[in-house]
Amino acid sequence: MTDPRLDALRQAAPALRLKTDPADLEHYGRDWTRRWTPAPLAIALPGNVEEVQAVVRWANQQGVAIVPSGGRTGLSGGAVAANGELVLSLERMNQALAFDPVDRTLTVQAGMPLEAVHNGAREHGLQYPVDFAARGSCSIGGNIATNAGGIRVIRYGNTREWIAGLKVVAGTGDVLDLNRGLIKNSSGYDLRQLLIGSEGTLGIVVEATLRLTDPPPPSNVMLLALPSFEVLMQVFAAFRQRLQLEAFEFFTDVALKHVLAHGAQKPFDEIHPFYVVAEFASGDEATEAAAMAAFEHGMEQGWIVDGVISQSGAQAAQLWRLREGITESLARYKPYKNDVSVRISAMPAFLAETQQLLSEAYPHFEVVWFGHIGDGNLHINVLKPDDVADADFIAACEQVTKLLADCLRRHGGSISAEHGIGLVKKPYLGSTRSDAEVALMRGVKHVFDPNGVLNPGKLFDP
């Protein structure tokens, strides 16, 4: 028997594609967390802005919640539909709409994959510099919804810095055309920036005007082996002082073990406790000499025990695979993930305290560390043993996350660096935001989404 609410939706938007097969409900109703059982009402796949508006207006009339959906590569449960919501997938709205060579902007639909955005910018001799390992499957709309960062934040910043304009369907069904690509615009509140990082709770991004920049300079990649956790920041300071860093990524021997088991090539004969992938602008003898000087200085100080520098693009890709392949190599373990950040200056003290906390709290669990040390972002992945039930494992991890949240509060950090709050981190929002801030955020949501139809229960409870 057809749900009468869906009959009403078909009448409101006759050309709208709807999916109700159980396999589709499961596929579109979850993200990479895999913690909640998907149970959406249906999947709507609009082909244009007007159909998105029709869906939102229908949701208000019928009292049905909407979960906006991009590539569903999120790790915080922000795209989970487990309570009869309608999933609104933007995957059909995936085209480039306009390129402006003077403004150097590319306007795209929200469902366009990040890798396609990269390719589109490259066709015009430019680049969109936000990048991370999920580039082939994540969408630009999802990136905007979480203010995604990635591997080159140290050079280019987060998604926020590269959004010149947004077209958004608010929770009322109204279309908002925010900033319209302007460089200077002091005409009141910048609602564009408010929507970035709002996790689909204020509006549904349908189009984005992206700032592009010059292609990256020639670069080299260096893999460094470190003897201890404590020397990470000294190595970072030495390389940042001498080189124009594009990326500075860290991972442990445990992470390397899993990536090697997943097919990557072993970089050194010996296994070392810690590793850094550093990418830096190169192209001349002076830069190469500076890179070697930084490496030799680290060796002399005892901060670095081995290293290799790429001699080709293929070798650079092999070195990057050691870092970018970590998440995929851990997927089968259903890892419990923490994605945290502190100021770079606070990182040494925070790292020392966190390392001690986790070693004491997880004596029987394998913990995989990696992160963007150059921008203060650390990823902590706790792997579930096969003989531990999912519920018991999550309960144990959440007790430790409470302690980690307290540690972050003391160091002025954030419980979510780049993955959003979603469902996973909602209980710990108070470690990052004051009661007054959360109250204001609830008020903002009510203005944009008065009936609470957009991604309710994510970020904070109604």
From TrEMBL:
Location of the FAD-binding PCMH-type domain: 36-215
Cofactor or coenzyme needed: FAD
Domain of life from the UniProt record: Bacteria
Protein name: D-2-hydroxyglutarate dehydrogenase
GO MF annotations in UniProt: (R)-2-hydroxyglutarate dehydrogenase activity; FAD binding; metal ion binding
First-tier enzyme category under EC: oxidoreductase
One GO process term, biological-process aspect: respiratory electron transport chain
EC number(s) on file: 1.1.99.39
Catalytic activity from the UniProt record: (R)-2-hydroxyglutarate + A = 2-oxoglutarate + AH2
Pfam families: FAD-oxidase_C, FAD_binding_4
Subunit structure: Homodimer.
